[in-house]
Amino acid sequence: MELERFKELHTRFFGKELPEEVVQSEEYEAYADAIHEDETCYNWATAEKLKGKGFNYENYCCLMMADKVFQSLDEEGEIKYGDVDVVINKWDEGLYGIPIHDGGTSMVLINYCPWCGSKLEN
Ligand SMILES: [Zn+2]
User: Ligand 1 centre from 40 Cα, in Å?
Assistant: First the structure.
C-alpha cells in the first residue's frame, strides 16, 4: 500500500471505536494488513504511536525494537517483570535481554537485535 494512502486510512481508523461494518470493510482490512505486512507502513505507524507517547524511539536500531522496549516499560518507565507479553528488556547500561518468565527476573542477554540483526551497542 502507498504510504500516503495508509496515512489517510490511519487518520480515519486509528484509536477510534469503529462500527462493525467498518471493521468488516475491505478498506479496513487493507489497512490492518498493511500494518503487519508492509514495513514502511508499520514503521510509520509505530513511529507515530511512540511519538504520541513521548517515547524516544530514534536511538533504537529499528522500530520493532523500540516498540518492544516501549511495551516492556510501565507508566513510570520501569521494566515490567512478570508480564508474559514482554519479549525484550533493555537496561540503562545498554544491555538487552530476553526475559525468562519463571516468576523471577532472569533473562538471556543478547548482542544482536532479533528483528533487524544490528549489533546492539552498550
Ligand atoms: Zn533492530
Answer: 15
